[in-house]
Amino acid sequence: MQNNKSKGFRSFLKEKGYYIVLLLCAVAVGTSGYFLLRPSKTPKTEESSASVSQNEASAAVTPSQQAADVIATEGTTPTEPTSPKRLTTVRPVEGDTLYSFAADHLAYNETTRDWRTHEGVDLSASLGQEVVAAADGSVYTIYEDESFGMTVVLRHTDGYTTHYSNLAEEVAVKVGDTVSAGDLLGTVGQTAGVETASQPHLHFAVYQNNTPVDPEDFFNLS
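^ thats the sequence. predicted structure below, dont judge the formating
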């Protein structure tokens, strides 16, 4: 009985084996095609990795960007304007005004006997009277002026310079010295060639950015 079954199975395989092989091949091809044609998830993984990398890079530069933003913000933060320090002024000698400021018109000069401008004021004083700095500053130059004699020039803030002329030959300061208002500069002399007809005095002039300024206005800065 069993032999008959075995012979029957072998006979079946012999007759139908070709078709079975074809069926198995078809199944194998179909299975392979399914896996080959199925959408791949790899790009999403790469995108995810790229996104992570970008996030990490962004996190890496963020502190620098934040620091730059802070610096830029600090640089543009408006600050309250500071008021310029005003000069404290004093009169270089105590005396009346003999000749007033006349930079924009002509005034008669008794020594030269002509009409000319006068870019300062002549302050009456006695020979040898002390002359002091009219404001804080530094000694810019000391020289013998052809018209106004021995002269000391001080430089101040805001473009101001003060000029002390008709001094005695010996002065109490040297170029580069820092002085305060009221410090001794020298004494009144009689060295101004164009003002010898006047009584002893200090010829005092003020300039701002090389433009003559009325000394009386300068005294009123304080």
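The two ends are 139 Å apart (CA to CA).
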